[in-house]
């Protein structure tokens, strides 16, 4: 390591390790620096881990929902439009994580290896020890996160064996061996679990100030640390960095994936493991009582968002990206045309049909109050929270949106290039108080969650139902049924009839499984989950995307876009460029 050349000062210019080794390890001569030169420059050393944070995939919305049965793109040049039309390939992969995550892991490994040698303070070895522990804990938690994204995007079956990716726990240089086979999926999961466990030993549950000297951990008190020392390193100034609570959430996300049908072969992670990891975290959040009452509309709770500061989160959000300043980019991409937007993501009739009626019954159930002649009446309140349909209002002036074919506005289905193709526009995630009128454009603050508590409750519900049945608690004091009932009550479902449909299936594991999957579909729509969920569940990837054409006050369901996915595409490919370089790598079957 002592002969390793350091990275360029401008980290964003560095390309991936596996595709540009020379650029990474032999930068331009005027930028050459030995790694040891950073030991007395903590800002430079910390740049390694900052690079890891900058590469977190959910630092921006991908909207891969547009390659599923939940949504389509109205732009034929959109990568997900083309992906869903049969153009997904190992050399054309919009959801690839190989390059980004492998590069992040290289930087994190460098940080782990050098943290103990960096001087973070002036002549205070005790504080240096504490800073080194924190940063190593962050780096290990982030390394687990990137392993999760690698497995999700590239793990799969090859020659009858479930494979993951190559495990790198040490930084690489030009003399390192790169032509290595992929580790098994199981080995990758065990490495992820190990990284989380070590991170938990180094990190506090949350980065918050402590009030008493007695709250200083014994290992730091033994070094002479007091309350002020601890708060300087592990206090509230470090909020939004990766904490012990966040590391636990990453473990629960990964365990859910590993226990799922598509990944469970040859894998020791069980549904009970996933339920336990999620349950332990939810107990820390107060169990069922910790479900945020305003979590349904976290993206548009103006008072909550405008009062965020000092790294504070809304109750619904465990971890988020930096708040940033007021913006209008999201609305410009997705607002309807009459609101000066490009209407990019169009929710499908498939998704609309997944919303039950307000009494809780699926619209196909004989006891449902659904009326095909008046399909938007008496529906799950989340429908109107998340989707703009004909007759809704939108934008800062609450303008009525007319999506009919004969309505005479550009909001109508297939009127112009930026019109909806399905008869629907996305409302979720958008601030309706953003004004895109070119005469007076005004932006608003937006929250970008990395992990929401609703996701974690749904992880527990899914895993607990599989492990212990709908009513089993596994010792946590709440069941899959309890979680789903609470989430549906929050949404306003079944309030007048005691959610009779949920009560009718409370002892039926198979029916509860379908409800949990549907609740996950609704609660997490447009947030990048459906694409991966369909695959880990081994469900149909080729259901055509449908829409609703309204003309002369009549409703006609139409086919909008066929989905072209092969059976093997439940797993993503290893990049072709890597296979051409490294003979030891095996491609997932079918690619």
Overview of the structural elements:
This protein is mostly helical. The strands form six sheets. A two-stranded antiparallel sheet has the order 1-5. Helix 9 runs antiparallel to helix 10. The two termini are 37 Å apart. 47% of the residues are buried.
The average pLDDT score comes to 93
Structural class by helix and strand composition: mainly alpha
* Straight-line distance between termini: 37 Å
Rg calc: 25 Å
- What is the makeup of the main sheet? 2 strands, antiparallel
General shape: globular
Helix count, per DSSP? 20
Which residue ranges are poorly predicted, with pLDDT under 50 across at least 5 consecutive positions?
A: 1-32
Please provide the count of β strands: 12
What is the subunit arrangement here? single chain
Short descriptors:
37% helix, two-stranded antiparallel ribbon, mainly alpha, globular, SusD-like_N, single chain, 591 residues
Short description:
This protein has 591 residues and is mainly α.
Mind sketching the topology for me?
Blueprint: H1 21-25, H2 42-54, E1 71-73, H3 79-87, H4 98-114, H5 125-154, E2 156-158, E3 161-163, H6 185-202, H7 218-221, H8 227-234, H9 244-259, H10 271-284, H11 302-306, E4 317-320, H12 329-334, E5 345-347, H13 349-354, H14 381-386, E6 387-388, E7 393-394, E8 399-400, E9 425-426, E10 449-452, H15 453-468, H16 480-491, H17 500-504, H18 509-523, H19 530-536, E11 545-551, E12 554-561, H20 576-581
Antiparallel strand pairs: 1-5, 2-3, 4-10, 6-9, 7-8, 11-12
Helix pairs in contact: 2-4, 2-5, 4-5, 5-6, 5-8, 5-9, 6-9, 9-10, 9-15, 10-15, 15-16, 15-18, 16-18
Protein name: Starch-binding associating with outer membrane
Family: Belongs to the SusD family.
Keywords: Cell outer membrane, Membrane, Signal
